[in-house]
């Protein structure tokens, strides 16, 4: 590897990225790529080169072949799913992280990586007003960076099954009897985690009609009935900010049900959890003080590149009991001393990249005050879009919370037609979904480059697609 070539290429890459961000900000690129399936495959040779090529050529091909066929998630008119944000600070940190190339599976394999992660998870816990027991400083719990809310849910479910069965969750005696509860509004990663963990399908607790949120009384009834039938209720997964409508389960009341019965409560706050940075947006229903574990995706709304989810647990022993594994080749004095945190025992994989660096860069480069403004800005833009939807004849506002606006047309057929036409529209991306059995379109604000003008323009595009073809 030629270090000088790296310096030149890295400077070139930085320049190209800065120009790319500028082009996104001024809407010079489409949101959605033009090519049919196979476009990129066709442009790439079928075999790897035998001889090395210049980084400059590879970079050039990146912009020539790859970038035009990407969906631009940072584009102001990207309104799909939930945002997956980024920032120059996060990008720079990823470059530095990659260059340092450390692997922080245990404290001893990279002490600073582990201690930095402990510190930034504590910073964020305090900034989100999470209970002190979720901090490393408390000596009880702490935060750990996972790749995704999906992994956080899996880790939490496994720890809960382990606790509920006193470590015997894989044995015959418990097989098929452990139960995990959520609603049909939980993200698909929740039933997936329950399946992977070997606990079958989750029990779907009814929602309170018209709210899309868990009915705590129905949860209590179901748990008690299951217990009477010889089953073992192990965990409840509640959601703060559901994926379809951004609804929030009543966590304090769910937490009371769990606490009385010794059931683990995991709170999936992947998107909406970040809003708690702003004191005026903290909701009583979010109730992190009732949770055994709580997860927020920094890569959704905190300008930190994906992947970066933080999972906080109230009792770190639960995780290490369920996931710990220390074969002879990982033994070391620091671990034996019991004085260090080995994050390998807080996650599924053994190895781990130093993801804390990007969170550190982002929190320092922006500061909490600026990150709060980012969230408030996106919420203002969503309110603008919601007001445009409400004012438009032939449209209905189905839900509007934080940065999310959910809408439908007058009839289901019209919504389906609109969805079809929008799917062929390169300049805006919304996500279709189903609410109460009816088709809807979701629009989530979160691009760093969105403003009032881009929101009005995106809405004009949607309206144009809704107009009957002439
Ligand atoms: C986005 C989202 C997820 C999935 O997040 P990943 O990090 O992609 O696994 C889970 N739950 C909720 C509520 C979400 O909004």
Automatic annotation (TrEMBL):
Keyword Thylakoid applies? no
Q: Which family does it belong to?
A: Belongs to the group II decarboxylase family.
Say if the entry is tagged with keyword Lyase: yes
The domain of life for this entry's organism is Bacteria
Query: Protein name, please?
Result: Aspartate aminotransferase family protein
What species does this protein belong to? Answer: Streptomyces viridosporus T7A
Which keywords does this Swiss-Prot/TrEMBL entry list? Aminotransferase, Decarboxylase, Lyase, Pyridoxal phosphate, Transferase
Q: Sorted alphabetically, which Pfam families does this protein's record hold?
A: Pyridoxal_deC
The protein's required cofactor(s) are namely: pyridoxal 5'-phosphate
Q: Name one GO molecular function term.
A: transaminase activity
């Amino acid at each position: 590897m030629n270090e000088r070539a790296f310096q030149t290429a890295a400077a070139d890459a930085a320049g190209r990225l800065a120009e790319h961000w500028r082009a996104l900000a001024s809407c010079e690129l489409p949101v959605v790529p033009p090519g049919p399936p196979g476009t990129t495959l066709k442009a790439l040779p079928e075999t790897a080169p035998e001889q090395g090529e210049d980084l400059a050529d590879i970079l050039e091909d990146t912009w020539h072949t790859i970038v035009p066929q990407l969906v631009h998630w940072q584009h102001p008119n990207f309104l799909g799913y939930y945002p997956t944000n980024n920032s120059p600070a996060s990008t720079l940190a990823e470059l530095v992280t990659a260059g340092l190339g450390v692997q922080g599976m245990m404290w001893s394999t990279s002490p600073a990586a582990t201690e930095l992660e402990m510190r930034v998870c504590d910073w964020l816990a305090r900034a989100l007003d999470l209970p002190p027991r979720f901090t490393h400083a408390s000596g009880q719990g702490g935060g750990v960076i996972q790749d995704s809310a999906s992994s956080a849910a899996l880790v939490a479910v496994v720890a809960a099954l382990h606790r509920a069965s006193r470590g015997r969750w894989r044995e015959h005696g418990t097989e098929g009897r452990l139960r995990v509860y959520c609603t049909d509004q939980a993200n698909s990663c929740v039933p997936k985690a329950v399946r992977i963990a070997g606990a079958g399908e989750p029990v779907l607790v009814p929602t309170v009609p018209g709210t899309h949120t868990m009915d705590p009384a129905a949860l209590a009834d179901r748990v008690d009935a299951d217990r009477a039938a010889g089953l073992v209720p192990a965990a409840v997964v509640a959601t703060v900010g559901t994926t379809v409508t951004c609804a929030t389960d009543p966590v304090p009341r769910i937490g009371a049900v769990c606490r009385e019965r010794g059931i683990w409560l995991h709170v999936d706050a992947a998107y909406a959890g970040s809003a708690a940075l702003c004191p005026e947006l903290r909701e009583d229903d979010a109730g992190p003080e009732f949770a055994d574990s709580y997860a927020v995706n920094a890569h959704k709304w905190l300008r930190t590149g994906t992947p970066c989810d933080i999972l906080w647990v109230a009792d770190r022993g639960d995780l290490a009991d369920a996931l710990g594994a220390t074969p002879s080749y990982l033994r070391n004095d620091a671990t034996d001393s019991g004085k260090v945190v080995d994050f390998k025992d807080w996650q599924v994989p053994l190895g781990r990249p130093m993801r804390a660096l990007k969170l550190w860069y982002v929190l320092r480069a922006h500061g909490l005050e600026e990150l709060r403004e980012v969230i408030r800005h996106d919420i203002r833009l969503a309110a603008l879009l919601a007001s445009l939807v409400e004012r438009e004849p032939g449209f209905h506002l189905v839900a509007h919370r934080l940065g999310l606006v959910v809408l439908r047309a007058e009839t289901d057929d019209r919504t389906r037609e609109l969805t079809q036409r929008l799917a062929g529209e390169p300049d805006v991306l919304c996500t279709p979904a189903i609410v109460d059995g009816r088709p809807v379109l979701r629009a989530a604000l979160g691009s760093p480059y969105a403003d009032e003008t881009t929101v009005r323009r995106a809405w004009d595009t949607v309206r144009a697609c809704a107009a009957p073809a002439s």
